[in-house]
């Protein structure tokens, strides 16, 4: 559902009640992440990647607000190797790109839940 993740590249490695491990991305940029969730937050921790150092995280928190939701994402990742090629683009446009992709994903989720 995330716009820049190739379905052909996505692999589930394991899952439990409050966690999942998957590789996602594309042949150009990929990461194996362990996701853990509790309450209104999801934390993704990089296990392996061709552009991020292991151990980096991103946290997504969604809280009810004014009849809708407030979504906050905090990225704590460090580039490695060829990942530095993407640094200028991420530094200049990363927030806008991430917000645009998040909005697209939320629309897909909303539309898929309304068709059930």
Descriptive terms for the model:
alpha+beta, single chain
Summarize the topology.
Elements: E1 11-16, E2 19-25, E3 30-38, E4 41-49, E5 57-65, E6 68-76, H1 87-114
Antiparallel strand pairs: 1-2, 2-3, 3-4, 4-5, 5-6
Runs with pLDDT <50, length 5+?
none
Q: Structural class, please?
A: alpha+beta
Average pLDDT rating: 87
What percent of the residues sit in helical stretches (DSSP H or I)? 10-25%
Structure description:
The protein has 116 residues and is of the alpha+beta class. Helix content is 24%, strand content 42%. It has one helix spanning 87-114, and strands at residues 11-16, 19-25, 30-38, 41-49, 57-65, 68-76. The protein has a six-stranded antiparallel β-sheet with strand order 1-2-3-4-5-6, with no helix packed on it. A hairpin with a 2-residue loop joins β3 (30-38) and β4. The two termini are 17 Å apart.
């Amino acid at each position: 559902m995330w716009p820049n993740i190739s379905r052909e590249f996505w692999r589930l490695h394991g899952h439990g009640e409050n966690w999942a491990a998957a590789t996602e991305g594309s042949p150009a940029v990929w990461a194996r992440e362990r996701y853990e969730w509790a309450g209104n937050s999801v934390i993704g921790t990089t296990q392996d990647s061709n552009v991020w150092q292991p151990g980096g995280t991103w946290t997504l928190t969604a809280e009810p607000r004014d009849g809708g939701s407030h979504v906050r994402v905090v990225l704590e990742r460090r580039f490695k190797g060829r990942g530095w090629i993407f640094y200028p683009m991420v530094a200049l446009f990363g927030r806008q790109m991430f917000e645009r992709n998040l909005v697209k994903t939320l629309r897909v989720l909303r539309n898929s839940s309304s068709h059930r």
